[in-house]
Design the sequence.
């Protein structure tokens, strides 16, 4: 009896699901946009434009927090594809540790950054009204001294998240351009058939 597979058959690399890919790229673009707006608005003089940008920034932060919850829920309920064995064997142990550490730290900061921003806004006495219609409860009581303590942490955690994102991107590009192992294709949109 002959095998139905030809000798040249190559098992395709398992990709992330279409939902996981969509959540990954929407969150990545949203984080990049909100970080850019945050950098821009921080140095603006007080004006109606600055107030408007701060409100948009807070609304976007709440949306990113909600999107992060959805993404975490999806990740916990849908096991991601394992690394192909060839890549697993080729990666030094330190790279595996860095890979895991960066992933866990980024997931933590997806929540820490907007929650710290929410806490700062509440402590400073500026409630968040999402899209101007949905008031959110204060995360902490109004306390100007507390607001001054919290304020730098929102910036520091945002820069930490962007730094880790930079490491994540650099590693993905290294796998794509140096190792040429196809790892990036597992999360690249529009290539292959991912499950929903």
Sequence:
């Amino acid at each position: 009896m002959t095998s139905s597979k030809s000798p040249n058959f190559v098992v395709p690399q398992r990709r992330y699901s279409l939902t996981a890919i969509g959540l990954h790229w929407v969150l990545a673009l949203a984080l990049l946009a909100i970080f850019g707006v945050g950098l821009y608005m921080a140095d603006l003089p007080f004006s109606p434009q600055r107030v408007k940008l701060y409100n948009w920034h807070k609304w976007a932060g709440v949306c990113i927090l909600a999107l992060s919850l959805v993404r975490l829920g999806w990740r916990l309920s849908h096991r991601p594809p394992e690394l192909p064995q060839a890549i697993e064997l080729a990666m030094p142990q330190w790279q595996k540790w860095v890979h895991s550490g960066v992933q866990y730290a980024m997931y933590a900061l997806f929540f820490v950054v907007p929650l710290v921003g929410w806490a700062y806004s509440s402590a400073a006495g500026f409630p968040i009204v999402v899209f101007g219609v949905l008031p959110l409860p204060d995360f902490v009581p109004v306390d100007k001294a507390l607001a001054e303590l919290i304020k730098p942490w929102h910036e520091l955690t945002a820069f930490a998240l962007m730094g880790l994102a930079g490491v994540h991107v650099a590693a993905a590009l290294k796998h794509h351009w140096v190792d040429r192992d196809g790892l990036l294709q597992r999360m690249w949109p529009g290539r292959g058939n991912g499950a929903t």
Notes: Strands lie at 129-130, 134-135.
